[in-house]
Design goal:
- This protein has 514 residues and is mainly α.
- Helices cover 60% and strands 5% of the residues.
- It folds into 2 domains: 345 residues, no CATH class; 111 residues, no CATH class.
- The N terminus is likely disordered.
Length: 514
Amino acid sequence: MVRRSGVTQPAAMESVLEPTIVALPRRSILELAGLSWPLLLGVSGFLAVVSLGLGLSDPDVYLHVAVGRWMLLHGRVPTHDPFSFTLRGAPWVAHEWGAELVSLFVHRVAGWSGLVFLGAVCFGATLAYLMRFLLRRMEPLHALLLSALAAGMMLPYVIDRPHELVWPLTAVWVGGLVGVSEENRAPSWWLLPVMLLWANMHASFILGLGLMVLLALDSVERGDNRQLSITARRWIPFCVFALACALINPQGYRLLLFPFHVIGIRELLSHFKDWRPPDLQHLTVFDLWLLVVLGAAFAGRVRLTVTRAITVIGLLFMALQSSRNVSLLGLLSPFLLAGPVAARWADASPSGGHDGRLDRLFRTLSRPARPIVVCAVLAMAGVAAAAMLRANEPRPAAVFAPRAALQAILSRVAKPRILNDPNFGDYLIYGHVPVFVDARADMYGEKFLKRTFDALSLAPDDGVQALLTQYHINAILLWPGEPIVRALDRLPGWRCVYRDKMAVAYVLRAGQAS
């Protein structure tokens, strides 16, 4: 008999129990914690946006809240311009109306901090979904690399505008279609509500329809010719219903034509920063993406179908044409590259190797997180974000909100007709002031915008006076660096009433006609 801890046990029983105790498997702290890469990446992205105060660096945030306010007041979606005095009543495709109502609601409940919080949620949720999609197909380290590149390419475009609010919809739509294409299954009908929401929140839904067709062709390309009819029966009905969902919007078929109309005025859109080509002279995450993807392609680690190669090249071309499309390339390319990269890597890697400690660590975090852990981590992240926003309440960039200059005009002119800088137009609309021009380039059109930009740059010299006379301008609000400002200081009949480093304001002298 052996005495242990005051309990007498047979010696034979001790010999049975002891090996069992020693053989218990040891579980890592991370495994016991129930964390996962998607949870960690999503929360990290969410907190990064909040801590950096990203989202309010563009003047369009004023416009979207103002449009939502107008819709709530009038109970309908605008189809004609209600905000300018130059083209008042002109046809206008309000393609972001759904997102603008969401922005208005959040703004009324939680102010500008609420919009930053909402944008951070969309960014974090998109990264979490992308990471989970990649983990189902490839090694965790490779999935983390692609997700990190995507996050880096999207982060500069975290702006509280509708394109950010539809990032989760874009990810779910493309991820769902890529999955069924690779598994040779029929698309899920549950994806149709995603297209319905997307079409009523942002015009980029047209890209979703295009990718749908390309992924259907990819499924055909990778399949057996004898199954062509089966593949067609799976995809054609879904494509038809997806198009029907896109047509369920206040604008009808005009919404399908809207993106092509915008492309038609691309030259003039270059006056807006986010429509310009990306700057490749300085190292960015976009440059790293090019190095990684091209390096993998030259090393034979990527072998795409013809359809997928055309799709990735098309997305790259769009990104090189306009910097706003860099985020789309970063978000969408991992969905298209994951399967082929994983397949080539598995073929090229030696079999039978033993995983190191780092590999086991990465695979431990690849498992889905425990629901209770997800709730706890999200709650803590939400509390931390609320505390950060409360301590340092964000506001839109002051450079787009010439408050003092506008007040100088309104205190002197009862019914102002202001020739304004395009970057100030959204703030004026938010302040219930009719505008000369704003960021809605699609509505103003090529002819009007060209004339405006020529006048502001003094080309030709007589364009300024003609513009002032035609539209009965009695006040001017511009950025001080515009060439026209030097001419206004010498133009008879105009008086400068405010000037600082962000804005300069002029009013027409009493008794003068513009």
